Amino acid sequence: GLAEYYKGTFCVALPMTAVDTKSSKKLCYRIWYIDDYENRRFKEICASVSEMIASQKLNYFVSYQYLPKAIQVNGIALPGVKMEWIDGLTLDQWLIKNRGNVKSIKKLAADFLQMCKDFSKAGIAHGDLSNSNTYSVFM
Predict the structure, then answer these.
(1) β-strands 76-84, 64-73 pairing
(2) Dihedral (CA of 91, 92, 93, 97) sign
(3) What is the pLDDT of residues 50-109, one digit of tens each?
(4) How many CB atoms lie under 10 A from the CB of residue 11?
């Protein structure tokens, strides 16, 4: 009976279907469990990233909303972000699934390179691109 969740170094991601909207979009709440200094820093980063996403018009991101009190655990309010959940495979899962498909792997590599160029041009970096932390929509 536990909720589905994915644990990372600094946060827990909780995917769920929205119940208060007319759409059946799946949402994700990312809850940070870090100290107060990092929470203040996180809020500043979220505001900056939100502005960047809106101004750059890059299609690599979903919109998100910072929530200073996203969830309460044992009387302690924890900050988080509400965003749209996107189902997909991690990069390593996708590569294993497509290991014999040279054309698809070359397209993924070209798309990934273009994404990196777009990030560089926009003056941003992901900070944690890795085979297990990068989700593929190239399916």
Answers:
(1) antiparallel
(2) positive
(3) 777 777 777 888 767 788 788 787 888 877 888 888 778 888 888 999 999 999 999 999
(4) 19
Contact 29, 66 (CB under 8 A): no
How many whole angstroms separate alpha carbon 98 and alpha carbon 105? 7
Distant-in-sequence contacts of 87-90, Cβ < 8 A, 24+ apart: 87/26, 88/135, 88/136, 88/137, 88/139, 89/135, 89/136, 89/139, 90/131, 90/132, 90/133, 90/134, 90/135, 90/136
SS percent in the chain: helix, strand, coil, step 5: 35, 30, 35
Residue where the block lists tokens 């200073």:
68
What pLDDT, on a 0 to 100 scale, did the predictor assign at position 103?
97
